[in-house]
Amino acid sequence: MSTALWILVAIFAVGLIASGLWRIRAWLQKPAPPEVIEAARRRNEEEDRSPD
């Protein structure tokens, strides 16, 4: 009985990790909002103009 319980726990843990990774992958594939892109563009322009 104990071995069967540990196998079920391991299967549950692997499924939980896989589903979390799947959700992170889907979140990373979403495009960035236009405000974020514009802010990054402005920051890059400011860095190019600033003297080092």
> Helix/strand-derived class?
mainly alpha
Number of domains: 1
What share of residues are in beta strands? under 5%
Major sheet:
none
Distance between the termini: 68 Å
Mean pLDDT: 92
The residue fraction in helices comes out at over 70%
Characterization of the model:
- With 52 residues, the chain is mostly helical.
- The longest helix has 28 residues, at 2-29.
- The protein has one domain.
- It is built from two helices and no strands.
Reconstruct the topology from this structure:
Layout (H helix, E strand, L loop, with lengths): L1 H28 L4 H16 L3
Summarize the structure.
The chain is mostly helical and 52 residues long. Helix content is 85%, strand content 0%.
Keywords:
0% strand; mainly alpha; 52 residues; single chain
